Amino acid sequence: MKLLTFPGQGTSISISILKAIIRNKSKEFQTILSQNGKESNDLLQYIFQNPSSPGSIAVCSNLFYQLYQILSYPSDSQDHAQKNIPKIDMPNRKDNEQCYLLGHSLGELTCLSVNSLFSLKDLFDIANFRNELMVTSTEKYLVAHNINRSNKFEMWALSSPRATDLPQEVQKLLNSPNLLSSSQNTISVANANSVKQCVVTGLVDDLESLRTELNLRFPRLRITELTNPYNIPFHNSTVLRPVQEPLYDYIWDILKKNGTHTLMELNHPIIANLDGNISYYIHHALDRFVKCSSRTVQFTMCYDTINSGTPVEIDKSICFGPGNVIYNLIRRNCPQVETIEYTSLATIDAYHKTAEENEG
Question: Is this entry keyworded Acyltransferase (predicted)?
Answer without folding.
Answer: yes
